[in-house]
Amino acid sequence: MIEFVRGYVDYVCPEYIVVEANGVGYQIFTPNPFSFQPSRDTIVTVYTYQYVREDVIALYGFRTREERMLFAKLLQVSGIGPKGGLAILAAGEPQQLVQAIEEENEAFLCKFPSVGKKTARQMILDLKGKLQNVIPNTLPDLFMEWADSDCSTALDEAIEALQALGYAEREIRKIVPMLKKETLSTDQYIKRALQLLLK
């Protein structure tokens, strides 16, 4: 098991980041890749979960150990795979997710992509009462520096990231007009879009 990867963020795309550590580039799938900014000046620590199946070996990365623990717990739920786990965590509100599970709020859980009533019920059955040690006290609020000219590019990247998380085009199309009213970075667009999609 690789506990973490520490290095420079070399590349960011809608599905993953590449962290260069000691001359090796690690492809790491993250809930919101655009929360990481490519930089040779900043060293980041990404806590990783190594996912191994007979046809797949992949690294999934998180900003905190608590997020990683929650991802591992979600993978134990029947019907949730790594892509679904990332989509659930992409909203950046683990406390809200844990609260919904504890309060058996199926309606809230069903707002995540690929989570229907059956999977929401399974999440509650499998995880209720087992997440107390996972709730983080504070999550880093990370923003990217960007220029005004990058606004449309930032929105396009955010839409690609939402599609990579599994949101349907019709769902995204509904919120695009609201997003266009704001001038944000890619990371902020993603966060705002997720807030709108989860309403």
How would you explain this protein's 3D organization?
The chain is of the alpha+beta class and 199 residues long. It has helices spanning 65-75, 82-89, 94-102, 106-109, 117-127, 151-164, 169-180, 186-197, and strands at 4-12, 16-21, 24-29, 39-53, 56-62. It has 3 domains: 4-62, Nucleic acid-binding proteins (OB fold (Dihydrolipoamide Acetyltransferase, E2P)), CATH 2.40.50; 69-134, DNA polymerase, domain 1 (Orthogonal Bundle); 148-197, no CATH class. A 5-stranded mixed beta barrel has the order 1-2-3-5-4. The protein is globular and about 45 Å long.
CATH third-level topology of the largest domain: DNA polymerase, domain 1
The tally of domains stands at 3
Radius of gyration: 17 Å
Main sheet makeup: 5 strands, mixed, barrel
Give the oligomeric state: single chain
Helical residue percent? Answer: 40-55%
**At CATH's second level, what is the architecture of the largest domain?**
Orthogonal Bundle
InterPro entries: DNA_helicase_Holl-junc_RuvA_I (IPR013849), Hlx-hairpin-Hlx_DNA-bd_motif (IPR003583), NA-bd_OB-fold (IPR012340), RuvA (IPR000085), RuvA_2-like (IPR010994), RuvA_C (IPR011114), RuvA_C_sf (IPR036267)
Domain Helix-hairpin-helix DNA-binding motif class: 72-91, 107-126
Family: Belongs to the RuvA family.
GO molecular function: ATP binding; four-way junction DNA binding; four-way junction helicase activity; hydrolase activity
